[in-house]
Design goal:
Elements: H1 7-15, H2 22-34, H3 44-69, E1 77-81, H4 87-95, E2 101-105, H5 109-120, H6 125-128, E3 131-133, E4 145-151, H7 162-171, E5 173-182, H8 185-200, E6 204-207, E7 225-230, H9 233-239, E8 245-256, E9 265-267, E10 272-274, E11 277-284, E12 287-294, H10 298-304, E13 312-313
Parallel strand pairs: 1-2, 1-4, 2-3, 4-5
Antiparallel strand pairs: 5-8, 6-8, 7-8, 9-11, 9-13, 10-11, 11-12
Helix pairs in contact: 1-5, 2-3, 3-4, 7-8
The structure holds S-adenosylmethionine.
């Protein structure tokens, strides 16, 4: 997926001369993240090459979902928390070109420096004038923004500090807060905690939940989705990969200040179809349900055949 403006070019320029030892740095990065460690020791060149394509694709997918659920939402201002190279900001600018004001909070000096460099060479006026705060969320003097994004950052916040972090993120969200985490049991754990806290705070869940009833995900299962990401040659080389794509698993939560829950059934795994019908597992206000759309219901069957994991079925 292309990055907006001249960011693709800016990344190549930044990487020039920094590609030595990328495979090793990339393996070390994966091990750090798998082990639940922070980005503080991550090589930004490895991140740009081997991690960014997936986090960017997921951000683009989730923000497209926000736009679909709330077509009138037209954010003018954005706070991107744990911005890294600026991933979530780029997806937001592509989704809502009218964004005029961006603040990016990034605690790790190496990433803050990369962020400033890429902003300056992005070819996008809104990023060129973005305010970069080189500090941790806890230090940030939050000013309300229409949209607040925290993409793959809560994993780096200690569980004991999560409630305060969420309170701060929510207090800064004038209209919509988007949280994205890895689609792992640990990533979902943070999303589930956020859901419970933000519902108590009066938030309206836009996605992926279609309702405000208790989350039915329990035990060994966890709510997650997958986004297919094409790998460049550099990406494959950095990862020692043999297939030209990867499926990035993610969990997420979109919470709004106003409105109502969407209703419908969120599909939680790839639907299974044959000549007799389409069947899928979905999350509904009544809990997890196995729904079947029989082929004899021709109009519904026609729609159901196009369904994918992550879509909403409205019957
Ligand atoms: C995994 S990266 C995600 C970067 C980017 N948001 C993305 O989706 O590609 C996490 C980023 O959050 C930053 N970070 C972690 N904890 C933070 C905190 N408490 N305050 C601000 N930034 C933080 C890290 O330095 C790192 O750049």
């Amino acid at each position: 997926m292309a990055y907006p403006g001249r960011l693709g070019e800016a990344i190549e320029v930044w990487l020039d001369g920094r590609r030595q030892g990328l495979a090793k740095a990339s393996a070390a990065m994966s091990a750090r993240y798998r082990g639940g460690q922070s980005s503080a020791g991550v090589d930004p060149a490895a991140y740009l090459t081997a991690r960014l394509p997936a986090t960017h694709a997921v951000n683009a997918r989730v923000l497209a979902e926000v736009a679909e659920r709330r077509p009138d939402f037209a954010p003018q201002s954005l706070a991107d928390i744990g911005a890294g190279p600026g991933t979530a900001s780029w997806a937001a600018v592509a989704q809502w070109p009218e964004l005029g004001d961006i603040e990016q909070v990034e605690a790790t000096p190496a990433f803050a420096s990369l962020l400033r460099d890429l902003n300056a060479h992005s070819g996008l006026a809104v990023l060129e004038r973005a305010q970069v705060r080189e500090e941790a969320l806890v230090q940030w003097a939050a000013a309300p923004r229409d949209l607040v994004l925290a993409s793959y950052v809560l994993a780096e916040v200690a569980l004991a500090s999560l409630p305060d972090a969420l309170t701060k993120l929510w207090s800064a969200s004038r209209q919509v807060l988007v949280l994205i985490e890895p689609g792992t049991p640990e990533g979902f754990r943070r999303i589930a905690l956020a859901r419970a806290q933000l519902l108590k705070a009066g938030g309206v869940i836009i996605a992926p939940c279609t309702h405000h009833a208790a989350c039915p995900m329990a035990g060994a299962d966890w709510c997650h989705f997958k986004e297919r990401v094409q790998r460049s040659r550099a990406h494959m080389h950095a990862k020692g990969a043999t297939v030209p794509f990867e499926d990035e698993a993610y969990s997420y939560l979109v919470v709004a200040r106003h409105g109502e829950a969407e209703g419908g059934a969120r599909i939680l795994a790839p639907p299974e179809g044959n000549k007799t019908g389409v069947a899928f597992t979905a999350c509904t206000e009544q809990g997890l349900q196995r729904l079947v759309v029989p082929a004899r219901d021709k109009p519904a069957f026609k729609r159901a055949k196009k369904l994918d994991w992550g879509d909403v079925w409205r019957g």
